[in-house]
Fold:
Amino acid sequence: MILKHRAFSKDTMEHTPSAAQPSLREFLDKALERLRQRPSPFASLDYFYRRAGQILRPPLVTKARAEGRKVIGYYCALVPLEVIASFDAAPLRLCSGLPVMSRHGLPRDCCPLVSSSTESVNGREEISSPAIDAVVVPTVCDWKSHFAETLSGHVPTLTFQVSAKKREPSARRERLGSLTRLVHFMEDLTGRWLSRRDLWRAIQMYQKASHATRKLSELMRADPPPLRGSDLLFVMNTSFFDDIASWTEAVLQLVAEASHLKAPREVSARGVPRLLLTGAPIIWPNWNVPEVLEESGGSIVAEELCSGARVFYDPVRIDEPTLDDMLQAIAERYSLACTCPCFVPNEDRVHRNLSLVRRFAVDGVIYHNLRTCYLYQSEASVLRSAFQELGIPFLEIETDSSHEEREQLAVRIEPFIEMLRKKGHRAVG
Ligand code: SF4
Ligand code: SF4
Structure:
């Protein structure tokens, strides 16, 4: 995707991939091929494979352009999509697992979630049409805040304020203030007013996505589960760049199919250690962690990632569909119900993780840490203690989201899964 307005300046634009470095297209095709080669009984997964292959030029963008609608890039699961959709704009999540081809002036140690997303924002030669009208960036960490500043020189950018102390008395006023700024930003951009009817429609659309997500997650409670956990994560990732109504329909088809077909042994089997994958986001097409976990003999039955089921799991709950009530409910959904570690204190996150372990009969927990993310590094020890107190095996793995770390990951993961298998460990229900 290329920014519609002004590209990054020449000195920050330089990217000179070596001759040996694969292009983004080649990289994506290889990642997809690996997925498609695995046996799968579900024809309805095909929809998501197709979407994942279109990440460099999502049909969502082409369609919005043809219809004269705005495309709003956004970062992370903290941005209220209902507001964007109520202006008939297409939200496009820019967090990316693409390899970093160029740094666009960002420092070498920048969080890979931010530096990889420069590829989504500025694009490469194989992506030729302008795509994004504006960007919304939550101010959750220094990397994102600075990136927002850089972006604002190139495209209309809203820094979306997130109040870390979500349960403080002042937090209610602050989150409504942030939401109101988003509404005004969208009004300025589209030349329209926010209408009660459009917001209500958008909320209902995302409530349906939440319902489908819950049904999909619920399938994983079975022993063995009918789906690979990596497929569930993959399906959730494709929602970042898909039309949400079509995506919801496709998820419900997958649920219907998976509820009736028995998964073959290669997909899942009894006695395979059941894992909870939690921690820093894992974003397509950087699929090393889920692939290595499954290749090492584990089954990801639950995840607590802001790139997984959490994106839609909690619906916006409305008492009265008045404009004020709906805005209030949206603000609360994206703050009180959110378990991002940017909130402190964050008992909700510990509770959510522990409840997933019980509900999904998890044998062991894999905590994914990002080398550059102090939020996840700081909370890892809290979760470790909570799980250790209950005798639930916990493995912390650290990545820098580079695409060459499969072997190092396998060295850490294989013995852990072997230990779980030998132990025949099962957490108390
Ligand atoms: S961890 Fe939190 S701040 Fe980071 S991308 Fe996820 S929701 Fe956003
Ligand atoms: S993973 Fe951590 S450092 Fe990276 S963008 Fe998200 S919050 Fe910031």
